[in-house]
Amino acid sequence: MLHVSYGYLIGRHYVCQLSFSCATGYYCLAAQDPIPCRNGTYNNATGMDTESACVDCPVGKYCEGVGNSVPDGQFFSSSSLMHVY
Predict the structure, then answer these.
(1) Cα–Cα distance between 18 and 50 in angstroms, integer?
(2) d(CA 10, CA 83)
(3) Are residues 57 and 82 in contact, defined by beta-carbon separation less than 8 angstroms?
(4) 16 alpha-carbon distance from chain centroid
(5) 20 to 30 Å CA-CA from 7: which of 17, 34, 58, 71?
(6) What pLDDT score does 20 carry?
(7) Domains of the chain by start residue, with CATH
(8) If pLDDT is split at 50, 70 and 90, which confidence band does 32 have?
(9) Closest by Cα among 36, 34, 20, 21 to 68
(10) What are phi and psi for residue 3, nearest 5 degrees?
(11) Residue among 61, 58, 48, 21 nearest 37 (CA)
């Protein structure tokens, strides 16, 4: 995601300072393409620049695939299911 941080006039020209904000589910190392969080992890914040920003899915939830911004779902135990006969 590209953002205009600030701008100023020089003569008749407006100069913008652009900044790059990494999307949720990814982290961005300097001057590289966004890197998705690995399978089993997620990152729900923008602008992250280290792999440690991708955290493990909480106990009882799962993160399927790569680039997750939130856990995909919740695990259900067989004891929590109602048996119908």
Answers:
(1) 21
(2) 73
(3) no
(4) 26
(5) 34
(6) 59
(7) 24-78 (2.10.50)
(8) confident
(9) 36
(10) -125, 145
(11) 48
Using 50, 70 and 90 to split pLDDT, how confident is the model at 21?
confident
> What count of other Cβ atoms lies within 10 Å of the Cβ of residue 77?
7
Count of alpha carbons within 13 Å of 60, Cβ hemisphere only?
Answer: 3
pTM over 0.85: no
CA distances from 37 to 13, 56, 61 (A): 40, 10, 16
Report the C-alpha gap between 71 and 43 in whole angstroms.
9
Share of the chain above pLDDT 70, in %: 66
Rounded Cα distance, 50 and 36, in Å: 11
